[in-house]
């Protein structure tokens, strides 16, 4: 009915006959005008790796997420490719005896990151492999760089990270994604890659990695949770700063970054939107371990519909302008989208 309401105009008179519900009336019409849609091509699957053979271990604080030995990681990459996921991102749990103050094992060409990269590229050549050159998996103090006298030493760290990036590219990495937030590391990595003949290897900069409280389960997964001395506020971006994030992004692009990443994702949708709208370059978001764990915990308690919340949050990243999303949900989402 379109009759007049008490005291005045009809709904048609109020709206000028512009009724926004018209295109919401059916599933087909909602799909027809949907502005932001999620597909397998938007997904990157972060996978955790460990030493050993033919094993998978559950990460206690991340239900449904496992650490894989190299052979199992190859199977995971093959699964991802079959689901239409374009790339996997590799994160390693390094045995404690291989850790030291400077993260020197990162410069071992035969470390597990490089071995799993080579194995995946040999067995599943059509999938992209993304590696992180930061030192936190390799340091005995849990920081992303060299720790001296209580200070993370920027320039020495950059030198090590650039050398590690070349080794990762030698092993077959398609994208280097440094998460350390050291000043100048993008330019140093670009120079090192080019000098080593890896001009085609791209750089996805963790350009706005915030000093967040959402990283705890990840640190358990890579075995650094109990190691961290102090915090990372001297090199991660302060959660209150978006202008600073934009300045970081501009500097990284000037130094040679091909793509930008915001981490964590949901608390910083405004930053994702700013980077995309102001810089007009490929922007990615990392739905981090704490975000994943919160959904899983609430779903396990029956407080939310975990599957619906999972999808709603991922669509939010697309709506904010993200070209892709790193998410532990990637295979589950891809299977859902495939019906």
Summarize it.
This protein is of the alpha/beta class.
If helices are DSSP runs of H or I spanning 4 or more residues, what is the number of helices? 12
| Arithmetic mean pLDDT | 96
**Number of DSSP E strands:** 12
Secondary structure: helix percent: 25-40%
Low-confidence stretches: none
User: What is the radius of gyration?
Assistant: 22 Å
The quaternary organization reads as: single chain
Outline the biggest β-sheet.
8 strands, parallel, barrel
Instruction: Give the SSE order as H and E letters.
Output: HHEEEHEHEEEHEHEHHEHEHHEH
CATH topology (fold) name of the domain at 36-259 = TIM Barrel
Write the topology of this structure:
Blueprint: H1 11-15, H2 27-32, E1 43-49, E2 56-58, E3 66-68, H3 70-82, E4 87-92, H4 112-123, E5 128-131, E6 146-148, E7 151-153, H5 154-171, E8 175-176, H6 185-195, E9 202-209, H7 216-221, H8 243-255, E10 259-263, H9 269-279, E11 283-286, H10 289-300, H11 306-319, E12 324-326, H12 330-337
Parallel strand pairs: 1-3, 1-4, 1-12, 4-5, 5-8, 8-9, 9-10, 10-11, 11-12
Antiparallel strand pairs: 2-3, 6-7
Helix pairs in contact: 3-4, 4-5, 5-6, 6-8, 8-9, 10-11
GO molecular function: porphobilinogen synthase activity; zinc ion binding
Subunit structure: Homooctamer.
EC number: 4.2.1.24
Your description of this structure?
The protein is α/β, with parallel strands linked by helices. The chain has a domain at about 35-260: TIM Barrel, CATH 3.20.20. It is built from twelve helices and twelve strands. It has helices at about 10-15, 25-30, 70-80, 110-125, 155-170, 185-195, 215-220, 245-255, 270-280, 290-300, 305-320, 330-335; strands at about 45-50, 55-60, 65-70, 85-90, 130, 145-150, 150-155, 175, 200-210, 260-265, 285, 325. The chain has an eight-stranded parallel β-barrel with strand order 1-4-5-8-9-10-11-12, surrounded by eight helices. Helix 9 (about 270-280) links the parallel strand 10 and strand 11. It is globular. The model has no long low-confidence stretch (mean pLDDT about 95). This is Delta-aminolevulinic acid dehydratase. Pfam families: ALAD. Keywords: Heme biosynthesis, Lyase, Magnesium, Metal-binding, Porphyrin biosynthesis. Belongs to the ALAD family. Pathway: Porphyrin-containing compound metabolism; protoporphyrin-IX biosynthesis; coproporphyrinogen-III from 5-aminolevulinate: step 1/4.
